[in-house]
Each structure stands twice: as C-alpha cells, then as structure tokens.
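User: I'm putting together a small comparison set for a docking exercise, and I want a reference complex before I start. The sequence is below, and the ligand is S-adenosylmethionine. Could you produce the 3D structure with the ligand included, as structure tokens?
Assistant: Of course. I'll restate your input first, then give the structure tokens for the complex.
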Amino acid sequence: MSDASTGSLYVVATPIGNLEDLSPRAARVLGEVALVAAEDTRHTSRLLRHLGIAPAVVSLHEHNEAGRVEQIDARLAAGEDVALVSDAGTPLISDPGFVLVRELRARGRRVTPVPGACALVAALSAAGLATDRFLFNGFLPAKGGARRARLEALVEREESLVFYESPHRIEATLADLSTVFGERRLVLARELTKTFETFLDGSADELIARLEADPDQARGEFVVMVEGAAPREVGETATLEADALLASLLAEGVGVKQAAGAAARLLGGAKKTWYARAQQLKDGD
Ligand code: SAM
C-alpha cells in the first residue's frame, strides 16, 4: 500500500516532434517535481528550457536504470515527487523505464501516467488500418535472418501489425516484408507531427519503388504498419488436419453435432459451419 506521506513517480509523455503536443498537465508536473529522470539529460534539458523551468535532472537509461531505482525510491520515501521522461513520446514504449516502474510498483509506490504523444498510437490513428485489434512489436531484430523469422511468425496474425523502424534499416525491412507478406497492404508513417510528415500506402514492393524514386522518403523516423491477415474462411480452415480431427471423431462413433462442437472448441469458427463439414465427411464428400 502506498501511503500519503510518500511521493509519486509521474511517467510523463513528451512530444514526438511537435512541441505543441506536450500537455499542460505534463508541463505543470515537470515544473513541480523535485527530480526529473531522463533518458538523455541534454535532450530533456532542451525541452525544459523551452518550458522555462529548471528542475534537477538525472539520467536514466538502459545501462544505469537498475542502479537508479534505490536513488529514486529514496526520494519518493522522503515525500518528493519524481518524473520519468524519455527522449520522445511515452516512456517504456520501446524506451527505458520498465525496470524502475516494475520495481517501484512492487514496493507499493504510487506510479501515475501523464499521457500524451506515442508514435504507434499517432500512426495507427491516421493510417486507415483496422485498430480494433493491433499487435505492437517494437523494433524488429537488426539481423536479416532473425528479422525474417520474426515476420514469418506474424504472417497469420489477423490484427494490424505495428513496428518501429530506424532509417538505417527501413529499406532492408521493406525487402523482408515483401518476401514474407507479398502483396499485403502496408502503411509507412514517417516524421509524425513534424514538417515532413508523410503516410505512404501500398504493398512492400510499391513502397520500395516510392523510396527509390524519392530518397527523402527514406529519411527520418518511421512507424511501419501491416494490414492483418484476412480472417480465415471456414473453407480454408477445413484443412487436412481439421478434416482428420472430424473424421477420427466420426469414426469413433461421435455424432455429427458433438464432432462439430469439439472442432469449434479446438479450432475456433462457428459450430454451424463445422456441423456442415462434419456432415459432408460423414456423407463421404
Ligand atoms: N517512446 C516513443 C513513443 O512513445 O512512441 C518511442 C521511442 S522509440 C526509441 C523511437 C521510435 O519510435 C523511432 O525509431 C520510430 O520508429 C518511432 N517514432 C518516434 N517518433 C516518431 C515520429 N515522429 N514519426 C514516426 N515514428 C516515430
């Protein structure tokens, strides 16, 4: 249980390009806390100067995060508030902070989000891809083999897929997306909220051609989105494996209705459709 005499850790989102995206609440919190823990102190100092405030700032990045926990916890224990920020967007989203937040929560400290910009949410909100379900995958592995293996593991997913990518690897990643996803629709969101914000839409091969025709399109920061796999029709799902399951149940004397129920439970899809398939198999089709 957190007690009222201790401080809070505020997890504060900062802009991903456009400084107007910093919320008034974020500005107030950064001005009120005793300490700001920042991924890069120089980078954050520029933002703080822009806001006209000068709180104490310490670094918190992947190499010193574990060591900072005690120091920050001591400040909270003393009743002081601390803010956590990263270079851009929401801390912990492909950014440092997870170790600190997990540890402080385990110790019963108050951890409060101050929400704001996040590149993946900004990209999805304007891409025109389905957003009812999506799968955020962070950065893909840097090495080609591992990257393709990761993509291959995702090819059947029906959710929209979202990746972060650096300009150094965007072309290689598009080439791998072409190999793995073929003609599947992609959206490339570049330089969100900045002067040269662009959304490019098309198959991986179409996007590669666009980047080759205009190398400026390969510069900057990217969110790569891939349309989810089309939901499988039952006809497609009625693979040999599924047929084998139904056939073996029927062979054991399980009724068509029960076999359809078992297939729906095990394989998903509507019981009605499995019933029709089981009936076909029973009739020898
Ligand atoms: N914490 C951040 C967030 O909330 O989005 C993400 C940090 S991650 C280290 C940086 C990656 O986010 C970039 O390589 C890029 O893929 C994506 N990103 C950040 N800002 C972006 C922007 N303005 N436009 C497009 N992508 C951006």
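The chain is about 45% helix and 15% strand. The beta strands are 8-12, 35-38, 56-59, 82-85, 110-114, 134-139, 160-165, 186-190, 198-202, 222-226.
User: Thanks, that's exactly what I needed.
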